[in-house]
Amino acid sequence: MKALEVRVGRAAAAQLASEGWQPNLIDGLIGASGGPKWLILGKLDRALSRWLHPGRQRPLQAVGSSIGSWRHALLAQNDPVAAIDRFEDVYLRQTYSSAKPSVAEVTAASKTMLMTALGEEGAAAVAGHPWLQNYIVTAKGRGLTNRSGGSGLALGLGAAGLGNALSRSTLPLSFQRVVFAHAKAQPLPDLLSGFNTCYVRLLEHSVSSALLASGAIPYLFDGVVDVPGGPKGAYWDGGIIDYHFTPQELKQEGLWLYPHFSNRVTRGWFDKFLPWRSKPCSGADHLIMLCPSEAFLASLPQGKIPDRRDFGRMTEVERMRYWQHCVSQSQRLGDEFSDLIMGSNPLADCVVI
Length: 353
Prior knowledge:
About 35% of the residues lie in helices and about 20% in strands.
């Protein structure tokens, strides 16, 4: 049973067949929202960092929302593997006073996890990295969602969800995409289109606020008000607009790598509740998607990877044991990726999409 599924666009397949797995072929990374789902990708991220980092000088654009942006911040550290180790350890050990902790308690715990992962020099590493160009995607509220709490926010979110069910074209009425980007980063009109997208230069003193804003799920996590350098207002989880992104829209030359939790993509957070808007990723010529295989997922406890609902349906001991088991099993993803890039057949077991 293969644990890793590798899905490649036609242009990517042709380039890999011709040149093999060369780190400098990769021009971009995509990191999706998903909370605890990231745990299944930790070992793969470690393998990717060992492959991408040595001797690299070419720019690498890393676009992420929510936990995806946090993962990319870890890759920007001077020692990415050590940073992933710290984050994984503190993430696995997080505990709360009840099955339904307060927003303040979750926010405090999240800040602690981020600061533990970044350490004293982590923000500087993200803002000033010589080639890893982070794009931290956030959703700034508009109208009733441009506040950090209260009944008005609930009304605004409800209206946004109902409007989105009718058409995604209504969502810009409630949210603006604000991207906190590396000083040398260029706009990405294909991947980040619409929503009156605003790019703000990412500075050392704004890194932690931008990352916290990118993961601020309403009514689970406090919104971040007035992120330094950005437009005034309340900032929310970037996944509200860009939950999994839509990489089939990429038209830039160069290859984009997308380590993901599954082979399906859901465009925005509200679309999670609309099953017909979740689709297998296809038609992305320059994309390489790395994801757990269906067989691997079925072999895990409960036949799934960790997710946020585990906090309410398991005791802390059960959840920690289950998450740790999934993390241990995910080593297979990293090992199979390493075997692939070192093997004689660059497209061994790859699925062309």
